[in-house]
Amino acid sequence: MDPLTLGVIWRGLLAAANDAGVVLKRTAYSEAVREARDFSVGLFDHRARMIVQGDFSPGHLGSMPSAVENFLRFYPPEQLGPGDALILNDLYMGSGHLPDFFMMTPSFLDGRLIGYAVNCVHMIDVGGAVPGSQAVEGITEHYQEGLRLFPTMAWRGDEPNVEILRVIEANVRVPDKLLGDLMAMRNCNRIASQRLEAIVGKYGFETYAEASD
After folding, report:
1. Rounded CA separation 164/209 (Å)
2. Residue 88's beta-bridge partner residues?
3. pLDDT per residue over 22-60, tens digit each?
4. Does the model's pTM come out above 0.90?
5. Is residue 133 within 8 Å of residue 99, measured between CB atoms?
6. Are 41 and 60 within 8 A, CB to CB?
7. Contact (CB, 8 A) for 38 and 121
8. What is the rounded CA–CA span in Å between residue 94 and residue 117?
């Protein structure tokens, strides 16, 4: 691939991740996202490799590939469709504590899987022993720390999984902010997916795949 084409695609992917993160920040409900910028955004290619990182908090990026691997272990690519949004916050599949929620959305172009939009947000409360869900004194097992979710389908296409959202709402101290942040995370992934689809549509899948390599 000639370096000019590679550079244009690369900058386009970077812009996609950064623009999606701005949408997340502006549509979030909690102070952790709007003011502290405690979130991360990444784009993964069709082979589930991280190819782009947004310029936000780097703290979640090292564990993001592990989260994607676990998402796909529970929901193989052939089971996913446009608009799906999966979430997890398990300690051993994500970044190490329950307030960090990961969300993954697959991207498709003409029915072909072209990649995944992923973000991670630090939620300001996920239940547990104390507000904020980060107690260390008097905590002897992680079940005391808050609500724990294995990879779970939060949205199937455009339809929310109201049952799992209801479970989340019942187990946190500030449900309006947490559910609002989940919707902001979905906004973020939708924008990242739309931008990725536009880039692949313009340059073709083979050129995009070569640039990812």
Report:
1. 35
2. 102
3. 999 999 999 999 999 999 999 999 999 999 999 999 888
4. yes
5. yes
6. no
7. yes
8. 16
